[in-house]
């Protein structure tokens, strides 16, 4: 707290501000300081308010030891000065007897006799105050359940009594009744009881998150797997990182462990690492640690005990090490509770959780499904097909080189095996002339490493490795190999810089690279045929990349000429892979140049050749190209068939040797064109995960970003949020190593999803943070304009109109540098509507100021000859003037504005969108005129004419609200 309040008004303001903070140390420390400040004033009421805020901070900050101490002070004040407590404060005081009972139960050092004594105190106080005893019996039942006594009588004494004003909320009581049936082994009855909470009909601060965590396993046991998945995603988000809900987090970890989602469980454990040190409630900590141990035990049982795990601060942990630590601590806590209670209930319940067998082998919880192999450090993908690798070292070396000459995918496994053997301390190189010297093998391995670096788009690293390999080949006396390695280093890969200048520079660079390749080719004698074919392929590739960069028609013929050289050479020397490569390059050239029919003809011919003569490993790539060509030709069905076949064929080859991530992404596009978005979403996420495994993290995050936006468009809000939460906790994202704009896009999508999911508070925080960060994007003011505009709208929805105006002004300032006419106009109109709707006539002036700004944007758009893709900016603005004035009670002005909007719209026609907008404008004008201005006759004339017009044009759906309004006006008349 920057400065202590100097008077009670400042104290109350500070208390309100603190109440808006999330529970945790910051809120608790501030509450403690505010109590100190309140004690300086000679007024008891502010002190009571400060103490109540402090007790709340302790209770929901998981500090049960301190809550009863604060309540004791409040009780003393009540006894000494009862008149200080008005009806609301008195109600709050008696309500919090239950908080103290809950706190005492959570402390094993508190004797059982003291717990019973407190309940007696609560009952006596309630009776003296003339209050109903149902809340007392509720606490008595909860104590019996906690201790492990027979709860039948205690439950009946509570559940059979009528609720009072001091009873727990409906949602909390529903949870307690459901837990009673759950303890009796009746899953179905428990779930029926929980139904109002799980479906959102009843809720409170802790619910439905608490009920969801307990309902997860019953839902699975009764076969409701889809519902279990759905409530897990929403329920976990409501309790994560919250010390007062650590038990709930533990049950979500257990759920992951028992559904084949151990990798997600470890991810959630890492996200909640703070709970190991911040939970001061022994009872909550016991529940959290037991859930964590269920997860860690399962991971260790699956053979992954050496995986890293997030645990207590101050050291690094493995799964096995953390499990042992957690086991000891949780066992001790359970024993302490049992010793206090005189039963074995907590040890028995803990053992029952640890002994549970998995309920499902696999349940797909999120769009990002991963296994434990995926979270292992430097995890290598497991091949779907593995090449047979010779046992003999000389045979292995010769086999690797022979396969490399052919471009065969099985070479990958041979080089991997050789890399392992060479790295061993006892490696001895064969003394065999056919194998050659060790330096040649080192060069081979470097060349393979360079190729893999290029595949991962680490182009500078690849070029350096090729140069290093070339030097070793020189040393080994292999000039052809050295020249080929240098040729590979000459290709400048990677994307050009933004803008025309970047493309021009890249084009020049590729032209120079081609010239250098030609010189190298001409100056190097003695190439083996396969080496010379590869150099020819590189020459054609350089020109193909140039065409792809420049999109210049004049660059097409040189590519085709080089391709013909390669094809002629490969045909004369019967090099099948290079024949196929030349034909594939030719088809790609036609596709890049825009001649898609020719490209399709070429790929058809190539596929026939591949099926007849091979090489078979070129089939997936060729089918993928034909699929992309079919997409260009608008034949999504044919594209889907080709791409699906490509993936099936690719599965026959070792993982990583064929770009299946690209195929999955292309297949997602085909699915979207076919109107199958759910299938597209699956392919997008598979593409992203493959890119991630391959090391292409930027591409992977772009694919995940697309998947997140698609899932949001599909209304799968919790899927979207869970996916983004998983991505945003990745180490390189947290460390700021990933592109900041890409991360911002992920966060923006998450903010939109939170908004769509009606989590307005969380969405507002994220939008505001993004607006502040994007203000520094001098190179991209347009994006800042859009983010600031969205932020303004969400702030207005929260009633924070001052901050909304500030954000809108930021958006307008950025719009000057990078116009966003349509989006900004829509934002300003929405801000005007919200202000007028929420504040009525008091907000009219500010609402009209927004509309004036929107009018300025419409003028700018008209001057720039900008054509809106959606609604006309002028007619939409006139309509909003009508709506805003109607909200403010200025009905004559509203009607005039709506009539102007109708003139701007003109008579409706066959266009459905225009008809919908026109009908809505007529409806609002009719309502203003007929209901608020009490002129039903002209209103009915207006409505009837519109209904006739729309009906004649076939827009029957648009007439429904007009007919309903007309009927209402006739009834009133």
Chart the SSEs and their pairings.
Layout: H1 8-19, H2 25-38, H3 44-60, H4 67-80, H5 87-95, H6 97-105, H7 112-128, H8 134-147, H9 152-159, H10 170-183, H11 187-198, H12 209-221, H13 225-239, H14 246-257, H15 262-271, H16 275-278, H17 282-301, E1 308-309, E2 317-318, H18 319-341, H19 345-354, H20 372-375, H21 393-406, H22 411-423, H23 438-455, H24 459-476, H25 479-490, H26 499-523, H27 529-550, H28 556-572, H29 576-592, H30 596-613, H31 619-632, H32 636-650, H33 660-673, H34 677-694, H35 697-713, H36 717-728, H37 731-734, H38 740-756, H39 760-774, H40 781-797, H41 801-817, H42 821-839, H43 844-863, H44 873-887, H45 891-905, H46 912-932, H47 936-952, H48 956-972
Antiparallel strand pairs: 1-2
Helix pairs in contact: 1-2, 1-3, 2-3, 3-4, 6-7, 6-8, 7-8, 8-9, 10-11, 10-12, 11-12, 12-13, 12-14, 14-15, 14-17, 15-17, 17-18, 18-19, 21-22, 23-24, 24-25, 25-27, 26-27, 27-28, 27-29, 28-29, 29-30, 30-31, 31-32, 31-33, 32-33, 33-34, 34-35, 35-36, 35-38, 36-38, 38-39, 39-40, 40-41, 40-42, ...
Low-pLDDT runs of 5+ residues are: 378-385
Percentage of residues in strands: under 5%
User: Oligomeric state of the chains?
Assistant: single chain
Strand count = 2
Helix content range: over 70%
Largest sheet: 2 strands, antiparallel
Number of helices in the DSSP assignment:
48
End-to-end CA span: 62 Å
Shape: globular
Would you tell me the structural class of the helices and strands?
mainly alpha
Gyration radius over CA? 35 Å
Average pLDDT over all residues: 93
Largest beta sheet: what is the strand line-up? 1-2
């Amino acid at each position: 707290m920057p400065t202590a309040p100097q008077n009670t008004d400042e104290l109350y303001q500070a208390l309100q501000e603190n109440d808006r903070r999330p529970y945790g140390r910051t809120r608790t420390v501030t509450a403690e300081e505010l109590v100190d400040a309140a004690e300086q004033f000679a007024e008891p009421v502010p002190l009571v308010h400060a103490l109540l805020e402090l007790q709340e901070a302790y209770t929901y900050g998981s500090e049960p030891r301190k809550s009863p101490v604060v309540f004791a002070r409040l009780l003393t004040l009540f006894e000494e000065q009862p008149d200080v407590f008005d009806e609301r404060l008195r109600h709050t005081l008696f309500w919090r007897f239950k908080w103290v009972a809950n706190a005492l139960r959570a402390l094993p050092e508190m004797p059982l006799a003291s717990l019973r004594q407190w309940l007696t105190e609560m009952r006596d106080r309630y009776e003296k105050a003339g209050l109903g005893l149902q809340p007392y019996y509720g606490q008595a039942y909860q104590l019996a359940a906690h201790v492990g006594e027979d709860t039948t009588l205690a439950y009946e004494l509570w559940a059979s009594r009528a609720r009072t004003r001091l009873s727990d909320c409906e949602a909390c009581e529903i949870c307690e009744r459901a837990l009673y049936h759950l303890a009796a082994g009746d899953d179905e009855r428990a779930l029926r009881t929980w139904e109002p909470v799980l479906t959102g009909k009843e809720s409170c601060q802790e619910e439905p998150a608490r009920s969801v965590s307990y309902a997860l396993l019953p839902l699975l046991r009764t076969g409701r797997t889809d519902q279990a998945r759905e409530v897990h995603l929403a329920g976990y988000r409501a309790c994560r990182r919250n010390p007062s809900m650590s038990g709930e987090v533990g049950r979500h970890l257990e759920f992951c462990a028992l559904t084949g989602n151990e990798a997600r469980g470890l991810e959630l454990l890492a996200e909640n690492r703070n709970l190991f040190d911040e939970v001061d409630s022994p009872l909550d900590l016991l529940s959290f640690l037991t859930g964590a141990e269920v997860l860690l035990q399962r991971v260790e049982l699956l053979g992954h005990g050496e995986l890293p795990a997030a645990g207590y601060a101050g050291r690094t942990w493995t799964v096995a090490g953390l499990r042992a630590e957690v086991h000891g601590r949780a066992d001790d806590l359970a024993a302490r509770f049992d010793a206090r209670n005189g039963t074995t209930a907590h040890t028995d319940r803990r053992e029952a959780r640890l002994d549970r067998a998995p309920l499902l082998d696999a349940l797909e919880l999120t769009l990002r499904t991963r296994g434990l192999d995926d979270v292992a450090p430097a995890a290598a993908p497991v091949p779907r097909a593995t090449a047979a690798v010779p046992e003999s070292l000389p045979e292995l070396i010769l086999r690797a080189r022979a396969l490399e000459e052919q471009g065969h995918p099985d070479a990958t496994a041979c080089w991997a095996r050789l890399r392992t053997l060479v790295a061993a301390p006892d490696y001895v190189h064969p003394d065999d002339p056919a194998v050659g010297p060790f330096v040649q093998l080192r060069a081979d391995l470097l060349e393979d490493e360079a190729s893999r670096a290029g595949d991962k788009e680490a182009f500078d690293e690849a070029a350096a490795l090729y140069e290093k390999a070339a030097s070793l080949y020189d040393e080994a006396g292999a000039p052809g190999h050295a020249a080929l390695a240098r040729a590979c280093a000459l290709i400048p890969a990677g994307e050009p810089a933004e803008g025309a200048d970047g493309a021009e520079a890249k084009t020049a660079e590729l032209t120079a690279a081609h010239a250098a390749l030609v010189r190298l080719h001409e100056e190097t004698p003695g190439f083996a045929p396969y080496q010379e074919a590869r150099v020819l392929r590189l020459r054609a590739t350089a020109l193909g990349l140039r065409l792809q960069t420049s999109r210049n028609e004049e660059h097409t013929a040189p590519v085709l000429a080089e391709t013909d050289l390669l094809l002629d050479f490969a045909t004369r020397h019967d090099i099948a892979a290079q024949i196929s490569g030349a034909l594939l390059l030719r088809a790609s050239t036609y596709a890049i140049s825009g001649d898609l029919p020719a490209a399709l003809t070429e790929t058809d011919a190539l596929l026939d050749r591949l099926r007849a003569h091979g090489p078979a490993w070129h089939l997936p790539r060729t089918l993928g190209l034909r699929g992309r060509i079919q997409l260009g030709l608008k034949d999504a069905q044919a594209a889907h068939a080709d791409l699906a076949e490509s993936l099936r064929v690719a599965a026959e080859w070792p993982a990583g040797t064929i770009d299946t991530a690209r195929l999955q992404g292309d297949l997602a596009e085909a699915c979207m064109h076919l109107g199958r978005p759910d299938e597209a979403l699956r392919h997008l996420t598979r593409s992203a995960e493959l890119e991630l495994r391959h090391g292409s993290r930027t591409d992977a995050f772009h694919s995940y970003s697309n998947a997140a936006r698609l899932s949001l468009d599909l209304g799968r809000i919790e899927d979207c949020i869970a996916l983004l939460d998983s991505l945003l906790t990745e180490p390189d994202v947290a460390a700021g190593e990933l592109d900041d704009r890409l991360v911002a896009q992920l966060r923006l999508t998450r903010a939109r999803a939170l908004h769509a999911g009606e989590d307005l508070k969380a969405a507002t925080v994220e939008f505001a943070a993004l607006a502040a960060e994007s203000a520094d994007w001098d190179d991209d003011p347009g994006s800042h304009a859009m983010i600031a505009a969205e932020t303004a709208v969400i702030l207005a929805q929260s009633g924070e109109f001052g901050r909304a105006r500030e954000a809108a002004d930021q958006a307008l300032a950025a719009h000057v540098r990078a116009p966003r006419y349509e989006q900004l106009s829509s934002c300003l109109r929405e801000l005007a509507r919200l202000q007028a709707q929420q504040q009525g006539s008091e907000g009219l002036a500010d609402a009209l100021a927004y509309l004036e700004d929107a009018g300025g944007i419409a003028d700018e758009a008209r001057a720039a000859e900008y054509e809106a893709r959606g609604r006309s900016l002028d007619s939409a603005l006139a309509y909003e003037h009508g709506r805003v004035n109607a909200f403010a009670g200025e009905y004559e002005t509203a009607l005039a504005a709506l009539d102007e909007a109708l003139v701007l719209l003109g008579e409706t026609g066959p266009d459905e969108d225009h008809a919908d907008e026109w009908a809505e404008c007529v409806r609002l004008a009719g309502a203003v005129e007929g209901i608020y201005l009490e002129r039903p006759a002209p209103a009915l004339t207006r409505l009837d004419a519109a209904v006739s017009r729309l009906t004649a044009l076939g827009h029957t759906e648009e007439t429904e609200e007009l007919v309903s309004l007309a009927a209402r006006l006739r009834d009133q008349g």
